[in-house]
Design the sequence.
């Protein structure tokens, strides 16, 4: 009798005997909102959970980065035989290798198969690309500015996108835009003279400023003109003799060794904090050089005070006008810290190498000669009248 009763119970209540709570997750069910993953980006982790049992089940799922908890757990609730449930959680990509683990916990009713309640992804290596141009920072010649083409016109290791002097000719791109020259070509007009040394960088027919020759009034006699020419030549010779005499006197007064030492001290000038030094090569030409060892991670920018800049560590610069100029060296290190150094240099107007001064002296001599000639002519006329 008992055997028949048990058989009847099994026939009429089969589900109650075999009902089971079983939620499932697999590593293939874990994904991210974007790929590839870049260090420092905030992304979203997705996970898909399936109810493979024959009972409705609620619970929650927890995410871990390695062994570290990621935010709070997410509540889940799945019907038996229903669709899978997808959950998500926001996550900041770390700067090193990592994996993600998802764990199903706190199920009601209790999950009877814990073997499929957790999943772990494989190790993930994030990329380092701060400007998101598809080139990793270690290979990017402009890691802070997007430049997927990596164009580097002058080959100095600094891409055009962040290089202030693309052709490395000593003129910054900003200055070249003002001059309407080509910032990608050292010699814009192709005349063989580089833009910084070319007075007419966009005109291949000329490159130097030519001074206009002085004219003599036609009322001066030929004989007087010859006399004036002689006077001019004598003035030029006197100036040269005076210079030679000074140099000769200097050599006599001090020894050769003292001369070299004194000249060296006079030619080399240091900035206030000895960050750079400079020498005066000519009346209006100076050579500037950074004293520290060149560092590819440091950006050097010269501002010569006349609208011209340069990113070279050693540069010769010629001023086209006279006066006092503040020379500034700005140094930006790898961390973005900027430091500056200033000094003031002077290009004198009254200098024998200044063509305007030489021309002015010649004109004064000519005018003096004309005055003398006029006075002589006037005296001759008066004598003839008598």
Sequence:
């Amino acid at each position: 009798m008992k055997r028949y009763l048990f058989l009847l119970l099994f026939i009429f209540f089969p589900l109650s005997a075999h009902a089971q709570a079983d939620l499932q997750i697999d590593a293939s069910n874990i994904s991210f909102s974007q790929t590839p993953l870049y260090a420092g980006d905030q992304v979203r982790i997705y996970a898909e959970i399936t109810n493979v049992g024959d009972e409705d089940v609620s619970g929650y799922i927890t995410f871990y980065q390695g062994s570290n908890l990621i935010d709070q757990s997410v509540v889940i609730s799945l019907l038996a035989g229903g669709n899978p449930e997808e959950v998500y959680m926001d996550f900041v990509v770390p700067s090193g290798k990592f994996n993600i683990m998802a764990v199903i916990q706190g199920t009601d009713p209790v999950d009877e198969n814990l073997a499929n309640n957790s999943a772990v992804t494989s190790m993930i290596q994030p990329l380092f690309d701060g400007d998101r141009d598809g080139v990793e920072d270690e290979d990017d010649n402009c890691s802070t500015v997007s430049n997927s083409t990596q164009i580097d016109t002058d080959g100095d290791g600094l891409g055009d996108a962040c290089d202030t002097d693309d052709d490395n000719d000593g003129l910054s791109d900003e200055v070249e835009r003002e001059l309407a020259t080509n910032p990608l070509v050292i010699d814009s007009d192709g005349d063989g003279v580089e833009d910084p040394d070319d007075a007419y960088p966009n005109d291949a027919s000329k490159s130097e400023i030519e001074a206009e020759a002085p004219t003599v009034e036609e009322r001066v006699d030929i004989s007087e003109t010859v006399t004036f020419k002689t006077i001019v030549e004598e003035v030029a010779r006197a100036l040269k003799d005076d210079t030679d005499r000074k140099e000769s006197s200097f050599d006599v007064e001090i020894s050769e060794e003292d001369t070299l030492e004194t000249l060296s001290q006079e030619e080399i000038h240091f900035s206030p904090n000895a960050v750079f030094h400079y020498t005066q090569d000519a009346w209006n030409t100076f050579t500037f050089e950074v004293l520290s060892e060149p560092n590819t991670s440091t950006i050097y920018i010269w501002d010569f005070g006349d609208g011209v800049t340069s990113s070279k560590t050693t540069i010769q610069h010629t001023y086209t006008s006279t006066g006092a100029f503040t020379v500034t060296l700005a140094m930006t290190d790898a961390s973005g810290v900027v430091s500056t150094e200033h000094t003031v240099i002077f290009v004198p107007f009254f200098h024998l190498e200044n063509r305007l001064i030489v021309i002015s002296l010649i004109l004064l001599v000519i005018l003096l000669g004309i005055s003398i000639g006029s006075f002589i002519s006037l005296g001759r006329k008066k004598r003839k009248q008598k």
Observations:
- The two ends are 179 Å apart (CA to CA).
- Residues 254-347 form a domain with the Immunoglobulin-like fold (CATH 2.60.40.10).
- The first strand starts at residue 23 and ends at 24.
